[in-house]
Amino acid sequence: MAQVPEYIPGLAGIPAARTSICYIDGSAGKLQYRGFPIEVLSERCSYEEVAYLLVFGHLPSASQLEEFRNQLVSERGLKFRIIDLLKTLPESGHPMDALTAAVAAMGMFYKGDHIADPEFRRLSVIRLIAKLPTIVTAWHRIRRGDDPIKPSHELGHAANFLYMLEGEVPTRLAERVFDVALILHAEHSMNASTFTARVTGSTLTDPYAVVASAIGSLAGPLHGGANEQVLTMLERIDDRSPHAVRSWAEDRLARKDKVMGFGHRVYKVKDPRATILQGLATKLFKKFGSTPDYDLAVELEGQMADLVGNKGIYPNVDFYSGIVYQKLGIPMDLFTPIFAISRVAGWLAHLLEQLEGNRIFRPSQIWVGETDRAFVPIEERA
Length: 382
Ligand code: CMC
Hints:
By secondary structure, the protein is mostly helical. The chain folds into 2 domains: about 20-220 and about 345-355, Citrate Synthase, domain 1; about 225-325, CATH 1.10.230.10. The chain is about 55% helix and about 5% strand. The chain is built from 16 helices and 3 strands. The protein has helices at about 40-45, 45-55, 60-75, 80-85, 95-110, 120-145, 155-165, 170-185, 190-200, 205-220, 225-235, 240-255, 270-290, 290-310, 315-325, 335-355; strands spanning about 20-25, 30-35, 35. The longest helix has 26 residues, at about 120-145. Carboxymethyl coenzyme *A binds near residues 10, 258, 259, 263 and 311.
């Protein structure tokens, strides 16, 4: 009899690709893009430079970076029919759904001959990275009855997003903090949305369908949606004294409810991105004043370390990102779309890698149902 392979829920620990994009050592809290430590990239680079590194596999020269930036700037605008499409969507809907719809529609406006065409691939990469921020900000304004703000030709990727939200050029500190947040979310190996992108890409469909499917996967509360849920969770904690925070956490853990922003399939220590984001948060608060949610988050982190640190449950990237975005004046339901406008670079890097020596994904299954059942005509069924 053939041996039944073991079923591993969530495919935990099963390699799905050979890759040179993102290296993680979860027990040492190490994260590297293309071999460069995240601490160095977040200190020295802009999002555009990191996106180039991820997609093309090497750091750009000054002229390559300038050309890449110019290409992104020239592709920031949206076709008026995509804006019209956004206008037809219900304003009560989640921005992630609006983003999925608009990105899927892009595939109809920017049809290429075949994914094997390098020029189609190059243009799709530029368009997707360039246009996602414009879609998110346009829809945010449309849903509240305002006209979208046209993208700036002068501002960098991070500053332009903040500018398109409210029409104000951000301060240097706000721009830098947001730029670093984008860098930190740009790639993270074989998570659910990246796996989705690789599976969709393996069918040789177009890159817009690949990114639309990845956005749908990112939207879930166990993945990108967690950053929004962290703030909702913190806001529901009324008594913020250390004693009350501890019993709140104990209760939640006893009920087996997840504490949002904690835990990670890969990290068994504090996520290095959470440490960097916390540093950014403290810089912001020094300049613009702290928030009660931040003080509560620090208290909760301490109590959780005491309660479940021995199980390797520590803050992940989402624990502090929402607090930072809130301080930048970004509405809560845009937190996950921001994750998408950053992660698109990682998804595209994985798509391109998948297409080298592609084989369509087709895992097996373990049958647990009945077989060869007798069919009962409908009039004879109980
Ligand atoms: N709060 C309380 N307990 C937790 C948590 C948490 N946040 N995360 C894991 N655990 C416990 C879990 O109850 C289980 O305990 P036991 O063995 O006693 O049953 C054990 O740790 C293993 O948990 P799991 O859910 O099987 O672990 P996983 O690797 O399947 O899930 C995770 C990883 C990120 C989905 C999970 O930690 C979680 O749901 N966290 C909260 C949501 C969150 O913050 N998500 C953002 C992830 S990071 C950004 C991203 O990749 O999108």
